[in-house]
Every structure is written in structure tokens, then in C-alpha cells.
Design goal:
There is one protein chain. By secondary structure, the protein is an alpha/beta fold.
């Protein structure tokens, strides 16, 4: 078990028993069929109190699926919930979103409304493309296709080009050495590898054609089908293909920056030596990228740092809850 994940279990359980951060929810909610002390009975209490109604409305209005269900998860280590708790409060604050983005890389002069939303603001959540460029046969926000946890649409300072800013959010995640190119479909004969073959069929030609990702002679068993790189590969293809076909999307763009939010303390994700490379997570992923400037890792507290003074109550909540 991850040392960091265990520390966060203990942290959330302590908050459940000794604070009012979850509005009196006593935990022991059900997760995977069993009551767990770190799972809230009412998942809405997992959200920062001032955003609860707004988040529920946003997911309903934009037909977004919740992780593992039809409502906010009560699992206090949910990264979907962590992302919303950090970013939802500022989504309509143009200056704050721009300051936060420029804290990651000081290159942008403007952020634009995320036009795929029913009520466009300056951050979107669980965003998908309008067209199926990745052969996934579905475009449901939040499930069964490539989507990004959060999304910003920005204008670059120098050449005034519009950029896509997909954000992948991690909290306590870490991964075993599972090969997603070698999985069976449910109900298929063991070893038939139907699910894995379908994945490789979907993405290998796209990877070959990508300018950012390095091509391989064979994709079976490769880095692209190990987590977290499987997610990063698909999101890179997602961004690159929206740029390529942007006239058919709500976002006309000429470039992108892929932001990966990971707590510095999550060493089980960041420092693991991955079997496919013998290197840590960042070194492993960067070895597959042609343009290193398009990918950046940032700690969530560091991401929020430029706007802490503007949102002191939210910052205090996030410090108590996550930092």
C-alpha cells in the first residue's frame, strides 16, 4: 500500500471525526460493497460547501458522468472531487484563472470562455471533443472516452495564437505494472486479449501519425499501454487532434500545453521505477515526447499559489483538506 495514500486515508478520517469540514457526515459510507471509515454517507459533503449546489447543477446541465456513480463520490480520496474542490470556485473569475495559468508558465495574455459548456466560464470540467478523433465510438463527458479533468482555453502573449490547456488531476493514485494492451473482455476466453487488441487498434495508427509522441515498432506491451502513460497518451492525441481539426470544434487552436497536477508527496507515483523504462514517472513519459515544452507537472498547492490571497477561505479549506 502507498505510504502517501495511507497518510491521506488517516488525514481524511481525522477530518471526519474531529472537524465540521464534511458538514457532520460521520463516514462509514459504502464503497465497493463495504462500509469504509473514509467514505462519506452523502457524497455531496465531499465537495467544498460553497460550491456544492453549483457543481451538481454544472454536471446535470452538461450531462457529465460522475466517477463510479450518478452523484458525487463519497470517497474522500477521489481525484475528481479534489479537482473540483480546487478549481470550481474560480471558474468564472477570468483574472484568477489567467494568474493561475501564468503561475505554471508565464506566457498567456487572456483566457477565453469554454464554449462547450451550457454556461461557458473560464474552466471546463470533464471536457471531450465534439468529434470522435480517437476511434472511441462515444463522446460522453466523464466516462467511456478520453476526457480531461479540467480545461482552459487561452491566448498566447507572443503570437496571439489560441492554446488548449488540458489538465489531468491526480491525488493519491499510483499504479501496478498492468498491461492494458493485454486484457480480455468480460466473458471472453482467458488469453483471448480482445480488450487489449481493441485498444491498440484504436490508438496505434494515431500514435504513428502524432507529431508529439514517438512511434514504436510494436505497441503491445509498450509504455503507452501502462498507467499513467495510457491516460497521458490518449490526452496528448486528444489535444493534438483537436488542434489539427479545430475548425470542427468549439475551440479553434494552434497549440496546447498539457498540465499534469500531482502532489509532490505522492512519491509512489512520481518516484516509482517503471518496468517499461527503469526510470521514474516524469523521465519515462518525457522519453516518449518530441517537444518537452508541451508537458509540465505541477503540485496542486503550487498551482493555486498565485491566487491564494484572493481566495483565502478556499485556500484555508484546501490546506486543511489536501495540502
Amino acid at each position: 500500500m502507498s505510504r502517501y495514500k495511507n497518510s491521506q486515508y488517516a488525514r481524511q478520517e481525522e477530518l471526519i471525526t474531529s472537524s465540521d469540514i464534511f458538514s457532520g457526515d460521520k463516514g462509514n459510507g459504502y464503497f465497493m460493497g463495504k462500509p469504509r471509515p473514509f467514505v462519506l454517507r452523502n457524497g455531496t459533503n465531499n465537495l467544498y460547501a460553497p460550491i456544492r449546489d453549483g457543481v451538481i447543477t454544472y454536471f446535470k446541465d452538461n450531462k457529465i458522468s460522475w466517477w463510479r456513480g450518478h452523484a458525487p463520490s463519497g470517497h474522500t480520496l477521489s481525484s475528481q472531487i479534489a479537482c473540483l474542490n480546487h478549481l470550481f470556485s474560480i471558474m468564472n473569475d477570468e483574472k484568477a484563472v489567467l494568474a493561475m495559468l501564468n503561475g505554471v508558465r508565464n506566457e498567456f495574455e487572456e483566457v477565453l470562455p469554454v464554449k462547450c459548456d451550457a454556461n461557458p466560464q473560464y474552466i471546463g470540467f470533464e471536457v471531450v471533443s465534439d468529434n470522435d478523433y480517437l476511434n472511441e465510438n462515444t463522446l460522453t463527458r466523464g466516462s467511456n472516452c478520453t476526457s480531461v479533468d479540467a480545461f482552459i482555453y487561452a491566448v498566447h502573449k507572443g503570437d496571439k495564437k489560441k492554446w488548449l490547456i488540458p489538465i489531468e488531476w491526480k491525488y493519491t493514485e499510483h499504479y501496478a505494472n498492468l498491461d492494458k494492451s493485454n486484457e480480455d473482455r468480460q466473458g471472453e476466453e482467458k488469453g483471448s486479449n480482445g480488450k487489449g487488441q481493441e485498444r491498440v487498434r484504436r490508438y496505434s495508427a494515431l500514435t504513428d501519425a502524432a507529431s508529439q509522441l514517438k512511434s514504436l515498432n510494436s505497441y503491445y506491451g509498450s509504455i503507452y499501454y501502462q498507467e499513467p502513460f495510457y491516460q497521458l497518451m490518449r490526452q496528448t492525441l486528444w489535444a493534438e487532434n483537436i488542434v489539427k481539426h479545430s475548425k470542427g470544434e468549439p475551440f479553434e487552436a494552434e497549440d496546447y500545453l498539457h498540465i499534469h497536477v500531482i502532489p509532490n508527496e505522492n512519491k509512489d507515483l512520481l518516484d516509482k521505477k517503471y518496468r517499461v523504462s527503469g526510470k521514474n514517472m516524469e523521465e519515462t513519459w518525457r522519453s516518449m515526447l518530441n517537444d518537452q515544452s508541451k508537458y509540465i507537472i505541477v503540485d496542486p498547492q503550487k498551482l493555486f499559489e498565485p491566487i491564494t490571497g484572493k481566495y483565502p477561505e478556499l485556500a484555508e479549506y484546501l490546506k486543511k483538506r489536501y495540502w
